[in-house]
């Protein structure tokens, strides 16, 4: 079904008005249907379906001058939490979260940079199974300077951590730091582009008992220290294998023990009191990890520390019981590492977007998100803007895991001031599926991107 006439008519006065609403049922529909049974929609109906990856709505938008616009989605999500893609002119856009709701809601969907003349905005299926009523477009206001908290949240942060935060604040909004997960993948980037990422991403996964007792081992701490010795920066994630309760079945092997589906470990029950055995096991794991982080501290390495990542997704056990138990564990972890172990080299990076999951400004130096959108090299502006709102622009914002590299030209055009990116390892960087070698070379050669050579001496800058 294709109703171009209604869309174009609605846009006739777009240059004069600041906001316009485009009804979903008036777009070009592919694989989706118009519905009217769920009350409360605007216009003459809404669009439903989105059951297949190719399902989408396409809006034709004509504007008289090139301009950046804020976009919102009016939707209903009766089938649980979902995501959708907003794609502009077949060349990148934003992944947009659609939280579960049985009523019609409006959510920000990032920004779109409309070119003078004709533009196509598509709402693509992604997770699917939601209802779209309309989109709205409003001219974006110019963004003023950031208002970043000047001090680390740990009042006892050491000189290394303070120097790192000082440098990051200096470049934030002006440049983006390059990062790559895993030593082998970082070496691949160096060998294939001639440039080395500024940041290495590594994991504390294989240092705790539930994994080492089954033969796991790691030298990621060594890799981190070596990269720092070259003048680089370090970020650690922790795929925390549940300390007990791993199923270890053919379907859910022990090495998947950080996944909710692979363990019966209940974090809410473990935190119910400080005397139960599972609480003791959590503390033991934290203390084990502390011994590794102390090696970095003693080597003069500040760490962009990102524990309990992707919590709001629920696919990891630390997020499986909802936000309250996760936030409680994060605060316990913070206090155990900073107060008890005196790990003052840590920069605390929070890694969920929803306000319900945010543990508080006093525990977070940097906010961040992980996004994977194959084929989309856009600025991930919806996620960036949501993180901007999360702390009222008082914390720097990082793209801590990405599958597709972001185009620096679009980052600047969309005012998406990501502090750094870290591409995930293996095929995400080297297989030519998520990122072509030409694109990787282009990004690493861009003057907007800071690589290892560009940040030398950052501790004293």
UniProtKB/TrEMBL annotation:
Q: What does UniProt give as the signal peptide span?
A: 1-17
Q: Does the keyword Signal apply?
A: yes
Q: Which residues form the Rhodanese domain?
A: 312-327
Q: Name one Pfam family in it.
A: Glyco_hydro_26
A GO term, aspect molecular function: mannan endo-1,4-beta-mannosidase activity
Q: Where is the GH26 domain?
A: 159-453
Q: Which InterPro entries match?
A: CBM6, Galactose-bd-like_sf, GH, GH26_dom, Glyco_hydro_26, Rhodanese-like_dom
Active site as annotated: 310 (proton donor), 401 (nucleophile)
Question: Which GO terms of type biological process are on file?
Answer: substituted mannan metabolic process
Domain CBM6, by residue range, is 20-138
Q: Is Hydrolase one of the keywords?
A: yes
Q: Which UniProt keywords apply?
A: Glycosidase, Hydrolase, Signal
Q: Which family does it belong to?
A: Belongs to the glycosyl hydrolase 26 family.
Full protein name? Mannan endo-1,4-beta-mannosidase-like protein
Organism annotation: Ampelomyces quisqualis
């Amino acid at each position: 079904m294709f109703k171009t006439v209604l869309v174009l008519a609605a846009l006739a006065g777009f240059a004069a008005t600041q906001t316009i609403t485009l009804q979903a049922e008036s777009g070009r529909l592919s694989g989706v249907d118009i519905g009217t049974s769920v009350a409360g929609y605007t216009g003459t109906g809404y669009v439903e379906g989105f059951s297949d990856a190719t399902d989408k709505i396409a809006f034709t938008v004509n504007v008289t001058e090139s301009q950046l616009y804020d976009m919102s989605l009016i939707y209903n999500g009766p089938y649980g939490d979902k995501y959708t893609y907003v794609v502009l002119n077949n060349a990148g856009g934003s992944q947009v979260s659609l939280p579960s709701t049985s009523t019609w809601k409006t959510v920000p969907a990032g920004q779109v940079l409309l070119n003078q003349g004709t533009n196509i905005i598509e709402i693509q299926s992604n997770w699917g199974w939601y209802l779209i009523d309309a989109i709205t477009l409003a001219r974006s206001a110019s963004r003023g300077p950031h208002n970043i908290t000047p001090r680390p949240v740990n009042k006892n942060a050491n000189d290394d951590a303070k120097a790192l935060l000082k440098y990051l604040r200096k470049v934030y909004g002006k440049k983006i730091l390059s990062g790559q997960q895993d030593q082998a993948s970082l070496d691949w980037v160096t060998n294939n582009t001639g440039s080395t990422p500024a940041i290495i991403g590594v994991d504390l996964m294989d240092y705790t008992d539930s994994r080492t007792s089954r033969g796991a081992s790691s030298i990621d701490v060594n890799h981190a220290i070596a990269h720092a010795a070259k003048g680089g920066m370090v970020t650690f994630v922790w795929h925390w294998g549940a300390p007990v309760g791993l199923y270890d079945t053919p379907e859910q092997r022990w090495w998947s023990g950080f996944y909710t589906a692979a363990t019966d470990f209940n974090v809410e029950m473990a935190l119910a009191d400080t005397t139960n055995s599972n609480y003791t096991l959590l503390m033991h794991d934290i203390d084990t990890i502390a011994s590794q982080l102390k090696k970095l501290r003693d080597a003069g390495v500040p760490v962009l520390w990102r524990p309990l990542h992707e919590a709001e997704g629920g696919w990891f056990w630390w997020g499986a019981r909802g936000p309250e138990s996760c936030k409680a564990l994060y605060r316990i972890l913070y206090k155990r590492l900073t107060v008890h172990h005196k790990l003052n080299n840590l920069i605390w990076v929070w890694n969920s977007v929803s306000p319900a999951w945010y543990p508080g400004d006093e525990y977070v130096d940097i906010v961040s998100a992980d996004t994977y959108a194959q084929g989309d090299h856009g600025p991930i502006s919806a996620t960036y803007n949501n993180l901007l709102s999360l702390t009222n622009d008082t914390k720097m914002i990082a793209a801590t895991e990405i599958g597709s590299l972001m185009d620096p030209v679009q980052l600047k055009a969309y005012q998406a001031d990501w502090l750094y990116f870290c591409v995930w390892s293996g095929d995400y960087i080297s297989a030519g599926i998520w990122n072509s070698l030409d694109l990787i070379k282009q990004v690493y050669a861009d003057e907007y991107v800071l690589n290892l050579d560009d940040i030398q001496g950052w501790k004293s800058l």
